[in-house]
């Protein structure tokens, strides 16, 4: 690895990690697209500074970019506050017109100065990490340190602001100032990153690590740490891939880009590395990942089917209890809208876990199965009684509701329900008699039972 | 039919073509944009216009040409993919909507840039053109259609504009209902989801057809800004469509001349011009503008202070021992400041009060207004005491606020609902409705 690649590698890793950390806040606050706005709105500032300063004055241009970027944010806030334009439209309006103004200005510069000056501005739109020099690295390092310091110092404040800004306001915190500080830091990082990865992809570097880390943790501290690490790694790996170093080390080209003469552009490769990590997390993250959720849903469905089977067996043999009779498959099918194969499979599974005992083509509840079934029937009927007495619902209307909720009632809720009932209602077994006649129609459960939990964001504990 | 154009001065020809193509592109975007703005999906247009890039490259690689049909197909496919991916990530993946949008379109854009670097070097798929647009060069690239020599861009955008117009006319009702109330649309059996995807397909198609002219960022400007501007100006969808189309055309014309004048990028000036239109609407829209709201508030404040002055003079006349009020005292009594001065001057000018030596006195017309106001005030007090059971010392303040907003109808209703009392809770007489208006 040569010296120049080393500088670029350090620069992109640093940039990736600090963008990841600050971007996480933006993602948490549902402002993920603010990064996109900041980077687009920076363009006219860059050009204006260029025109005023007359030459490529790095700090001046970054200052200009910062000013117009923040002006864009302020405009959005004002437009949303004072007109009927909604936030999404306001964001789009400011983003596109500012960028349009930037294009106009850069075109004017182009005509003024000829081709030579153009290269400087062009790199801001698509990014040119390769052009990173020692000075740029120092600047990135300085800004990253400052930004991280701000996050560290204002950690508690930013945390409250991200999760409950209303609470922060009620506590008398300077919410507006904090908000401006956060946005300003974000804008600073965005502007610093523009020359390296360009306008569109800077937005990705802000969003991707935070969105990825969100799949793995529910706590803010680890989230920030993780997104910093993810940003750093994807930045580094992206740079190595685009510089062709991965190809060199491995001895072959894993991405099949070997035929291309020129190296790949760094920004897009970094972003695609981030996308790869993101996609991996979407599928494989524990708990929040797609596969984990699918598995949970399947398990829940299996549990519901098993419990429906047990309750049906109990109700069919109720007159002969406590000695459960053998129930035939046909009897079962008359009660439940199951296919024959489904019912057989359910019985087989229940038998394997020792809940029923297979007899001929039907089954008989074992002692364990009976206890479990009694628990379920009790939950079902307690809920029905509660609905009848507590919510004043007709006895022939309660079965379906109870069917849906019986699988989720905890022992605490059950004892609460029980204590609300007149004691005389409960026979010694603890299982109340059904408040309505049990018919085939009434127990059509299964399909109407609760589905997998809705896909909503779980609570994120601060 | 088009021959006369080719006989014109070349500069004028350029003007004409650039404006025509620009206006058509802008209108095609603006019409769809109205729905995007209303459905709060403006940023989906932004996302799609970035994300179609890989679709274009893949279409080029597969077909070996940059013909608009292949490009359109590629863009359509990726546009749909973008929409579906964003929704799936949001609904099934538990990613918040803005983040899923940001992730999807930037990733696809990155993929597109890499694919262009990899395959697109041979073609004129110039990322710069995709982003910035080169409308001013539209006259150079020409084709022959039905014997007429026209810019190629015109042949691309005209059918798309036509398609958009036809789509909107055909599905007017469905679009209307599903934009304002998707739930209602579903219960009525209109497929809101299908309409949504059709709309997105058209956005993708329009985006790719506009790329060459205005570039992807400026497509976003044309998709969102005219619609948002029109939304500030009116309350009916039909009017909104017409206004946004007019704005689109106007910004094409003004944008072109600005670009010629400053010798710069036409697409850029068009988006700046349309932004100016929006800014103007923000301030000067008759109903929703900031300035008009300020003006409205100012007028209301002035009216309230004026009425307060009238009410005060009326109450003075009522006193057993009449006392007069000097203008300076009167102004101080209603809060002072320039507003009070303005209100007093306006009263005098309207002839509702006159200055008698140093004292202010009501004229007949002023007394009529004052009577109405005091009647409202005291009726409201009676109502609060009788119907709401408020204590006596709690009714003056609310009545002081309400008196300015009680019209004739409400007054009659109040009189009907309160018992037939001739006095207010403080024992003062409720003046009768003066018939001589």
Considering the chains and any ligands shown, give keywords for the structure.
heterodimer; A: 462 residues; mainly alpha; ABC transporter involved in vitamin B12 uptake, BtuC; Arc Repressor Mutant, subunit A; two-stranded antiparallel sheet; elongated; B: 437 residues; 3 domains; two-stranded antiparallel ribbon; 18 helices; 73% helix
Care to describe what's here?
Chain A is an all-alpha fold. Chain A folds into 2 domains: about 5-205, ABC transporter involved in vitamin B12 uptake, BtuC (Orthogonal Bundle), CATH 1.10.3470.10; about 295-445, Arc Repressor Mutant, subunit A (Orthogonal Bundle), CATH 1.10.10.10. Chain A is about 70% helix and about 0% strand. The relative contact order of chain A is 0.10. With about 425 residues, chain B is mainly alpha-helical. Chain B has 3 domains: about 5-285, ABC transporter involved in vitamin B12 uptake, BtuC; about 290-360, Orthogonal Bundle (Arc Repressor Mutant, subunit A), CATH 1.10.10; about 370-435, Iron dependent repressor, metal binding and dimerisation domain (Diphtheria Toxin Repressor, domain 2, Orthogonal Bundle), CATH 1.10.60. In chain B, the strands form 2 sheets. A two-stranded antiparallel sheet of chain B has the order 1-2. In chain B, strands 3-4 form a two-stranded antiparallel sheet.
């Amino acid at each position: 690895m040569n010296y120049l690649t080393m500088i670029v590698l350090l620069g992109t890793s640093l940039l990736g990690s600090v963008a990841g950390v600050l971007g996480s806040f933006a993602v948490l606050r549902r402002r993920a697209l603010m990064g996109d706005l900041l980077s687009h709105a920076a363009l006219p500032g860059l050009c204006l500074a260029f025109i005023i300063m007359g030459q490529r004055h790095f700090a001046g241009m970054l200052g200009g970019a910062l000013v117009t970027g923040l002006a864009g944010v302020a405009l959005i806030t004002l437009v949303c506050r004072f007109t009927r334009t909604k936030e999404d439209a306001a964001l789009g309006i400011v983003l596109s017109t500012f960028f349009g103004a930037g294009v106009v200005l850069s075109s004017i510069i182009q005509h003024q100065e000829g081709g030579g000056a153009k290269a400087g501005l062009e790199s801001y739109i698509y990014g040119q990490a390769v052009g990173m020099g020692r000075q740029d690295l120092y600047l990135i390092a300085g800004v990253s340190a400052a930004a991280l310091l701000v996050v560290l110092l204002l950690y508690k404040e930013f945390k409250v602001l991200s999760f409950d800004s209303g609470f922060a306001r009620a506590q008398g915190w300077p919410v507006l100032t904090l908000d401006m500080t956060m946005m300003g830091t974000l804008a600073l990082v965005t502007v610093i990153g523009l020359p390296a990865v360009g306008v569109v992809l800077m937005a990705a570097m802000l969003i991707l690590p935070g969105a990825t880390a969100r799949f793995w943790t529910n706590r803010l501290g680890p989230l920030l740490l993780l997104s910093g690490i993810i940003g750093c790694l994807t930045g580094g790996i992206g740079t190595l891939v685009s510089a062709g170093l991965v190809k060199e080390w491995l001895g072959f080209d894993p991405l099949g880009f070997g035929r291309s003469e020129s190296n790949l552009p760094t920004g897009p490769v970094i972003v695609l590395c981030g996308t790869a990590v993101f996609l991996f997390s979407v599928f494989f993250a524990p708990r929040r990942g797609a596969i984990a959720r699918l598995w949970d849903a399947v398990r829940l469905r299996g549990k519901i089917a098993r419990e429906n089977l047990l309750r049906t067996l109990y109700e069919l043999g109720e007159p002969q209890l406590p000695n459960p009779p053998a129930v035939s498959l046909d009897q079962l099918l008359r009660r439940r809208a199951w296919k024959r194969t489904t019912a057989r499979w359910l019985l087989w599974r229940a038998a394997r876990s020792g809940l029923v005992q297979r007899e001929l083509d039907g089954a008989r509840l074992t002692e364990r199965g009976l206890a479990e079934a009694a628990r379920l029937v009790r939950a079902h009927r307690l809920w029905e009684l509660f609905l009848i007495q507590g919510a004043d619902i007709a006895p022939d209307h309660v079965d379906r509701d109870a069917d849906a909720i019986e699988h989720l009632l905890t022992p605490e809720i059950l004892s609460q329900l029980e204590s609300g009932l007149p004691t005389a209602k409960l026979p010694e077994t603890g299982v109340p008699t059904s408040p309505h006649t049990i018919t085939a129609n009434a127990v059509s459960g299964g399909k109407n039972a609760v589905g997998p939990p809705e896909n909503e964001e779980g609570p994120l504990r601060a | 039919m088009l021959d006369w154009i080719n006989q014109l001065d070349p500069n004028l020809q350029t003007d004409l073509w650039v404006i025509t193509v620009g206006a058509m592109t802008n209108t095609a975007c603006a019409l769809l944009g109205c729905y995007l703005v209303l459905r709060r999906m403006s940023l989906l247009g932004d996302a799609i216009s970035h994300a179609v890039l890989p679709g274009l490259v893949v279409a080029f690689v597969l077909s070996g040409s940059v013909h608009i049909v292949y490009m359109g197909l590629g863009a359509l496919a990726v546009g749909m993919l973008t929409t579906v991916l964003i929704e799936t990530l949001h609904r099934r993946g538990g990613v918040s909507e803005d983040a899923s949008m940001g992730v999807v379109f930037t990733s696809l854009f990155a993929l597109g840039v890499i694919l262009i670097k990899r395959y697109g070097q041979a073609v004129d798929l110039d990322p710069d053109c995709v982003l910035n647009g080169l409308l001013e060069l539209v006259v150079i690239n020409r084709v022959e259609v039905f014997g007429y020599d026209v810019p190629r861009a015109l042949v691309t955008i005209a059918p798309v504009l036509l398609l958009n117009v036809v789509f909107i006319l055909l599905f007017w009702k469905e679009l209307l209902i599903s934009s304002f109330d998707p739930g209602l649309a579903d219960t009525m059996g209109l497929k809101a989801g299908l309409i949504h995807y059709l709309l997105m397909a058209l956005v993708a198609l329009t985006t790719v057809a506009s790329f060459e002219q205005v570039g992807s960022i400026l497509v976003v400007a044309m998709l969102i800004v005219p619609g948002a501007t029109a939304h500030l100006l009116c309350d009916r969808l039909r009017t909104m469509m017409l206004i946004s189309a007019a704005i689109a055309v106007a910004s094409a014309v003004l944008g072109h001349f600005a670009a010629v004048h400053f010798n710069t990028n036409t697409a850029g000036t068009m988006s700046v011009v349309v932004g100016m239109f929006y800014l103007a609407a923000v301030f000067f829209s008759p109903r929703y503008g900031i300035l008009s709201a300020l003006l409205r508030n100012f007028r209301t404040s002035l009216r309230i202070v004026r009425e307060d002055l009238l009410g005060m003079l009326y109450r003075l006349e009522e006193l057993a021992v009449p006392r007069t009020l000097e203008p300076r005292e009167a102004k101080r009594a209603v809060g002072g400041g320039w507003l009070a001065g303005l209100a007093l001057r306006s009263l005098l000018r309207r002839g509702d009060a006159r200055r008698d030596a140093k004292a202010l006195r009501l004229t007949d017309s002023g007394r009529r207004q004052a009577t109405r106001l005091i009647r409202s005030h005291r009726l409201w007090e009676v109502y609060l005491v009788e119907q709401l059971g408020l204590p006596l010392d709690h009714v003056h303040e609310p009545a002081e606020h309400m008196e300015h907003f009680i019209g004739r109808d409400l007054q009659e209703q109040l009189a009907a609902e309160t018992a037939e009392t001739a006095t207010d809770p403080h024992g003062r007489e409720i003046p009768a409705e003066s018939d001589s208006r």
